[in-house]
Each structure stands twice: as structure tokens, then as C-alpha cells.
Automatic annotation (TrEMBL):
SUPFAM superfamilies xref list: Nqo1 FMN-binding domain-like, Nqo1 middle domain-like, Nqo1C-terminal domain-like
Span of the signal peptide: none
Entry EC no(s): 7.1.1.-
Record bears the keyword Mitochondrion: no
Source organism (scientific name): Thorsellia kenyensis
Enzyme's top EC category: translocase
Protein keywords: 4Fe-4S, Flavoprotein, FMN, Iron, Iron-sulfur, Metal-binding, NAD, Oxidoreductase, Quinone, Translocase
Protein's UniProt name: NADH-quinone oxidoreductase subunit F
Amino acid sequence: MNPIIRTEETHPLTWRIRDDNTPVFLDEYRNKNGYAGAKKALTTMTPDEVVELVKNSGLKGRGGAGFSTGTKWSLMPKDENKNIRYLLCNADEMEPGTYKDRLLMENLPHLLIEGMLISAYALKAYRGYIFLRGEYIEAADRLRKAIGEAHEAGLLGKNILGSGFDFELFVHTGAGRYICGEETALINSLEGRRANPRSKPPFPAVSGVWGKPTCVNNVETLSNVPAILAHGTEWYIGLSAGKSNDAGTKMMGFSGKVNNPGLWELPFGTTAREILEDYAGGMRDGLTLKAWQPGGAGTDFLLDSHLDLPMDFEHIAKAGSRLGTALAMAVDNNINMVSLTRNLEQFFARESCGWCTPCRDGLPWSVKLLQALEKGQGQPGDIETLEHLCRSLGPGKTFCAHAPGAVEPLQSAIKYFRHEFEAGILQPLGNAKEIKGIQANNLLKTRW
């Protein structure tokens, strides 16, 4: 496996992390160049200059969508009279197999706080919330301690660093719904409402928390901002490797039956094969790679032949999947794809908010069909019905992106492993009358 030597110049997100995994609090963080980016932004730059710098850096959202962060910031109203604005950090992280934000928050809570301070200054936001997954108890404790330290040091509150800028920051723990990863559902939950997505427009930049302009960014996205301010755009763009057009580094990893599951901060352009073999140690003895998901449960499966692709937004999209969170899952040759996709679709069906009919009814329907195929009780036409559901729940067909993401693993599993689905079709025996009776009986068992 590659030796991991983290430095400030090569690993802006993780170089401060201690080998014993104890958290880095304020004194140590400041001794390691902490809050240098915030000092530069608040004392030498205007908010618009910070927005332009982040836009020029090429920083993209690290929550999965990959939208330009600086462009998103620039969508906030220019009207100076709209002085009530909010910055929200999406720290819900309920994507199965994803734990990158947790590592950053538990080990470097001040990195996120500094990133939010700089971002709030750029957005002219006077208050921020970290919407945290409720199960992240340790992260919540460390963030609250770090926020208290920042207050005592004058890095939060009134007239921060003598700049005249005021900013308050709070931790809000969620009640545990996957749909809160959608930014407007997160806003509804923060307000004490049911976590349903909102119709757009208006977008949060115009009408977000309590009807005020709001920007929502991911933990890893915000954690990149301090280094960009401290070291500049040319340095940040130069961090990526190979043929990648994406700037900076990314938290990437592999889970599944690999020898060394984990995550690492790596430059965009690092190939999936390098992560799997050099960092994750390859597949365990006696196992081979059958398929892999590039970035979470809601991304399309890819094959061994795709492993030499650079891990970035463009190349993974061209292969027919999404980079997502960039924490890949390895599927070994002993896994049945019908069972695996059934398990995934059960999760997504359970986590649907139920707001729109295609998602509310379509995902449970796919689970019923997959359960029948898994038991060898599928009917002729079931696979075609699943394919129809994938199209009907695709982009633009539902109220939010939950269902389109949910059917990505299903549609790709059928595409690459159709024979495993066909093996679940009931094979009739006997004469035509007996066949008809068997099919009718199983139809009653497997349909609502």
C-alpha cells in the first residue's frame, strides 16, 4: 500500500489530523496555521472578492452534485438591505457507506468552523447552522466544544477579528431521515416542519430558512475554503492529478470485502484502481471484484473494466454513473445482484418522504418485484416492469432527486447482470393448465 505522508501543501483537509485520532482543538489548530484563511478574508478582502476567489478556484460541491461553489454563492441576492441571511452546513451524511464528513468533524472541528466563518463573511450571513446527523453524537460534542472555544477567542460572535463582521454558529441535530440530505427538506426540518422537499423556484438563495436568503453547503465543501484563502487558486487547481479537470483534492475510499477498507484524501484524477489496489489493499483472498459503486448507494454500478477511470465528476459521468461522495463500495463475486439491489431499494423505499406518487408507490413496487425474483418466484415481464419503473422514476419525473438516485443501482444492475434477474423468473412445469395455475398462484403471492 502507498505510504501516506500528509503535508499542508498536498493534503489541505487532513494534514492536521493526529495519528492517534484524538481531536485537534483550538490551540493546536491555530499552531497549525488555523484561522489564517479567515484572518486574510475578514481583514484584507471584501465579501465579493472572497466569492470571486472561490469561484476561480474551481471548488465544486462535495456532497455529490458537484456544482460550482462560487457560482452557488453568487446566486445570493446583491441587495445590501436584505441583511438577514443564513448559511447552512449539510452534515446529515446518511448515504450508506459514506463517512467522510464524520471523520473531518470528529478530528478537525475547527476546520469546518473556519470554513463556515469565511463562507458566511462572503455571503454576508449573520447566522449559521450545522445540520448534523443525530447519530453523530461524538461529532456533536466536539463541534459544540470547538464553537465554545472559538467564541472565547473572538472568532465567533461580535466584531470578529476587528472586522465589524458578526456571526453566530449553532449545531442542530436531525431526527434521522435520509431525505434531509436534500437541501430544502433539510430547511423544512430545521424550521420544525416535516422533512419534505420544497418546490423550486424559489430557490433557497432567494427564500430559504424562515423565508430569508440561504446557502446550503456540504461539510467537505466548506472545509476546503480555508486552504483556498490561505494558499490561493493556482495552488488549489494544481493539486489535481492526471487528466482531471476538477480542482483540488477529495476524500475518497473503498468499503466492502477489501483488505484495508477506509478513506483517504487524494487528488482528483487518481484512478479507482489505484484506490482499490494501492490504498484499500485489493480484494480479500479468494474473492474477485464483480462490480463497484463509485460514490454511495445511489450511484450506478460499474465494472472491473471501469477501474482505470480517473475519479472525478466528468469521467465517472461519462461511464454512466456519478462520482457522488467518492466513497466506493466493492461488490465481490459471491454477491447476488438481485439480493443486493433489493436491499438497496428497501432502504430507499423506507426513506421516501411520501410526498410524490412515483417515489412513494414506485419504490415499494420495485422491492416487491425484487423480493419475488430473489425467491425464484418472479413472473415473465417482471424485469421489463422494473425497467419501466426506472424510467418512470428518473430525472424530471419526481418532485426531488431521491427516486432518480434510488433507481440508479437498479437500472445498472439489470444492464450488466440481467442474467441474474432472469434466473429469478419462475420456471413452469407441466401442461398449459398447470402452468397457468402456478403463475396465478404466484401472482397473488408477489403482488399487492
